[in-house]
Amino acid sequence: xxxxxxxxxxxxxxxxxxxxxxxxxxxxxxxxxxxxxxxxxxxxxxxxxxxxxxxxxxxxxxxxxxxxxxxxxxxxxxxxxxxxxxxxxxxxxxxxxxxxxxxxxxxxxxxxxxxxxxxxxxxxxxxxxxxxxxxxxxxxxxxxxxxxxxxxxxxxxxxxxxxxxxxxxxxxxxxxxxxxxxxxxxxxxxxxxxxxxxxxxxxxxxxxxxxxxxx
DNA sequence: ACATTAAGTGATT
DNA sequence: AATCACTTAATGT
Length: 215
Prior knowledge:
By secondary structure, the chain is an alpha+beta fold.
């Protein structure tokens, strides 16, 4: 991808936020990266010394315990960044989350050293970082609430609606098993509750596909 | 036609 | 809500 295309993409999603000088700097020091659906971007305990800016696509963020049991926390969308990677000035601590591309995605990787530099230099960058933190922490609260207070059927339905919103398509390509893994439950439970949601007219079930009608 | 994988279901805890 | 045990349906070779 050449500079012009990259510049165009950056402007598409960050123009309103970043001033021209900052965009120029991003173009200068950033590297473009394309990831395919289901590609692992960052795994738990890996070091990530770059700041990712998501241009297009979506990234699924999950946690895992020592037994390998996994649970999805939230999704990153275009224009988002991973605030977890801001955590430490030098990017030396290990990642506590896993990021997998939910669909083909494009991102720009920035050297973490620029974080401090731009914080003093650009008002828009400061705002962007603080906003990102806010958005992320609110997503986290939402994830906690969902886990703590919602029953499995509501969690499944919320999960489906979130996916529709993020992928911008009410026809989801997924299996009951994948949902079970993401929500950390069993496939049998997912199948039952999905059937119930279908009977309520909220979704329609097919093999390897789920159509969300009420979103 | 057969094997494999996804999905549906009753019964039990 | 989880698990078992089994059935049925769809898809690949």
